[in-house]
Every structure is written in structure tokens, then in C-alpha cells.
Amino acid sequence: MNYKKNIKDDKNYEKSDSSDSESEYLNISDEEKVHKFNETSNIKNDKKVDLNENIDKLEKDEKKTDILNKENIKNNLKIKKSVDEIISSIKKIDSNINIEE
């Protein structure tokens, strides 16, 4: 901020350059300032709530994913067991065919 010394009194300074938003802010009543602050504060609080909701959703999704992964592992083991049984059966049949020849 640029200040210009007031000629009448050395202790007083007046503002020479001010932005519009600053001068606007200075002209706003204290009640309006508090209201604006509360509005921005509420927005921040809403975002915090949204973040917490998102975290909860992510945790639920993570649990679902873990459950699905466990189910997939079980199913894969069942499939592997079935494939092993089929291979074993084929080997027995193959050995029986070889014996008969």
C-alpha cells in the first residue's frame, strides 16, 4: 500500500492508492463483514462434509472390493481344483488307452 504523508499533521497518513475491493471492503458495515465471513466459512464446512462423505464412500467401496477379491480367489481355487481333476482324469484315460494297446 502506498501512503502519502498528510501535510497538516505528521502523524496522520492518508491512503493515496487503493484498490476498489479494498475501498469496498472498508465501506461495508461490520454486520455485513461477519455475514460474508460466515458464508465463506459455511462453504468451507460444506466442502469438509463432502470430503468426509467421499472418504466414507471410498472405504465402503474398498470393503466391497476386498470382499469381491476374496470371492474371486475362492472361485479361482475351485476352478483350479476342477482343472486339476480334469487333467488327472485325462491322464488316467490316456494311461488306460496305452495299457490296452
Spatial strand order of the main sheet: 1-2
C-alpha end-to-end distance:
105 Å
Radius of gyration based on Cα positions: 38 Å
Give the biggest sheet: 2 strands, antiparallel
Q: How many extended strands?
A: 2
Q: Averaging pLDDT over every residue, what do you get? A: 75
> Beta-strand level of the residues, as a percent range?
5-15%
Q: How many discrete domains?
A: 1
Parts with pLDDT < 50 across at least 5 consecutive residues = 1-18
DSSP helix fraction: over 70%
**Silhouette:** rod-shaped
> How many H/I helices?
2
Instruction: Give the structural class.
Output: mainly alpha
The SSE string, one letter per element, is: EEHH
Biased composition (Basic and acidic residues): 1-18
Region (Disordered): 1-26
In short:
Helix content is 78%, strand content 9%. It contains 2 helices and 2 strands; from the N terminus they run E-E-H-H. A hairpin with a 7-residue loop joins strand 1 and strand 2.
